[in-house]
Amino acid sequence: MLRVLIADDQTLMRDGLQTILQLEDDIEVVATAENGEEACRLAAFHAPDLVLMDVRMPVMNGIEAVKQLRRTMPGLKILMLTTFDEDEYIIEALANGAIGFLLKDIQTDRLLEAIRQAARGEMMLPSSIAAKLAARLSASSLVATAPAPAEVRAPGIKFSDRELTIIPLMIEGRTNREIASLLFMSEGTVKNYISGIYDKIGTNDRTQAVILLKKMTVI
Questions:
Q1: In sequence order, what are the residues at sequence separation of 6 or more whose Cβ sits closer than 8 angstroms to the Cβ of residue 7?
Q2: Domains in the chain, CATH or no CATH each
Q3: CB-based contacts of 107: which residues, under 8 Å, 6+ apart?
Q4: What is the largest CA-CA distance in the chain?
Q5: How many angstroms separate the CA atoms of 67 and 62, rounded?
Q6: Using an 8 Å Cβ cutoff, are 48 and 3 in contact?
C-alpha cells in the first residue's frame, strides 16, 4: 500500500485529490494539510511514502517544507503540485530534493501513473516544465562562460555578494527578467536587490545607476 500525504491550501483541490486517490486499491491517503508547516508535522507523525506538495501555501510554502522534510525524512518522496506560471520555483525545489512536478490540471490517469512512478524513485517532469528547465539551464551556461564578476570599488559603500553578481548584468543592459532567468531568481527578488543597489548609490534612475556603477567598476 502506497501511503500518501496531500498538502494544498485549496480545500477543493485537497479534497478532490483525496477522493481520487482513495478509489485506488494500492493507495492510501494518510493525512491532508493546508500549509507546509502542517504538512511537516503530519509527515513526521504518519510517515507517508510520498507527499503531494503545493508550491504556494500560507504559513510555510512548499519549497520551505521540502527543505525541512528532506532534513528530517531524507527518504521521503515529494512531488510538487504547481500551476503553469510557477516555473520560477522549479530549480529551487529540485535542488532541495523534490522528485518532480505535477501540473494541477493533469488528467486523472496520468496523475495516478505519475504518483506510482515517483514512489519508485523516478523523476517526474511534465514536458512543458521540462522545456522551461532546459531553457533555464541553457541560460545558466551563458553565465558560466561569462567573464568573472567585476570588482566594485566605492568608498563607504558595501555591496552584498548577490548585488555584486547582479551589477555586471545591469551594466550589460540586461532587463530584470533576463537577470532573473540567468540567476534562477524571480523578477520580484531581482527588483528588490536592484532597489537596494539604488539606495546605496543614491539614485532611482536605471540609466544614471548604470553610469555610476560603471565608474565604480574595475574589471
A1: 14, 32, 33, 34, 35, 36, 38, 39, 51, 52, 53, 54, 57, 62, 65
A2: 2-126 (3.40.50.2300), 146-218 (1.10.10.10)
A3: none
A4: 68
A5: 9
A6: yes
CA–CA separation, 94 and 124 (whole Å): 11
Nearest of 180, 104, 102 to residue 136 by alpha carbon: 180
Per DSSP, helices labelled H in 47-186 are 62-72, 90-95, 108-119, 127-145, 161-171, 176-183
pLDDT in tens, 22-68: 999 999 999 999 999 999 999 999 999 999 999 989 999 999 999 99
3-state secondary structure of 32: strand
| pTM listed for this prediction | 0.62
Geometric angle at alpha carbon 56, from 120 and 42, rounded to 5° = 55
In this predicted structure, which of 149-163, 183-197, 202-216 has the lowest mean pLDDT? 149-163
